[in-house]
Amino acid sequence: MSNRSIWDAGAVFALGSAPDGSSPWVQFVPFAIVLAIFYFIILLPMKRKQQKVSQFLESLKVNDRIVTTGGIYGQITRLGDQTIQVQIADKVRIEIARQAVGGYQGQDPVVTDSASSM
Q1: Whether the model pTM is above 0.70
Q2: Per the structure, how many domains does the chain have?
Q3: Residue 71: which of 103, 118, 107, 117 has the closest Cα?
Q4: How many CB atoms lie within 10 A of CB 86?
């Protein structure tokens, strides 16, 4: 391929039309389709999952029986903005981050452990 053909192709694209005479907007259609597929297959489900987890964490209340993402079973005794206090045994209470709650005992986890998926 000679250098002249490279410069000719650059000049054609700089003028705004493809070599075959079609509109340059046609070249963006496949790109737009890929973006749409990426949005509907990856981003939209992630957004829905985040909303579900956020709703779950906001709905926690005292005396709920929970499981943490680390596998600790307990009962909520106190709620804070960022942390919750969980009783895991008689007279044994621990303070954990609200995001560490994985779900209710006996139900499927709402929050999946990201370390196990790596």
Answers
A1: no
A2: 2
A3: 103
A4: 23
